[in-house]
Amino acid sequence: MANIASARKRARQDVQRNAHNSSLRSRLRTAIKSVRKAIAAGDKAAATSVYVASTSVIDRIADKKIIHKNAAARHKSRLAAALKSMA
Predict the structure, then answer these.
(1) What pTM value is reported for the model?
(2) Which of 3, 7, 57, 76 is the right S-S partner for 31, CB 3.0 to 4.6 Å?
(3) Cβ atoms 41, 47 nearer than 8 A
(4) CA separation, residue 56 to residues 3, 13, 32, 50, 75 (Å)
């Protein structure tokens, strides 16, 4: 346990920041899964609308540096490729 007041404060902040970042990361994973699920269902129009919403979520989380911008680009690219390959 931290003994210095500033170190105790940093520990408190780390707990809050970790909880916040974890919830954002969870939202990211949910967004990606929802697109994959829509693609698996086979409805291209629904999958496209879910993809657009998920792209927004991915970009916002990358802007907050929860994930790297290149990782966000990779997720979006792979989802777009999966969407494009739908019959």
Answers:
(1) 0.85
(2) 57
(3) yes
(4) 42, 27, 11, 10, 12
Q: Which domains does the chain have, with CATH numbers?
A: 5-84 (1.20.58.110)
Interatomic CA distance for residues 71 and 31, integer angstroms? 14
Q: What are phi and psi of 67, to 5 degrees?
A: -125, 160
**From CA 25, how far away is CA 27, in angstroms rounded?**
5
> Dihedral through CA 25, CA 27, CA 31, CA 36, nearest 10?
60
Residue 61, token pair as written in the block: 């989380």
Single out the residue of 56, 57, 52, 59 nearest to residue 73, CA to CA: 59
- How far, in Å, CA of 78 to CA of 81, rounded? 5
76/3 Cα distance (integer angstroms): 45
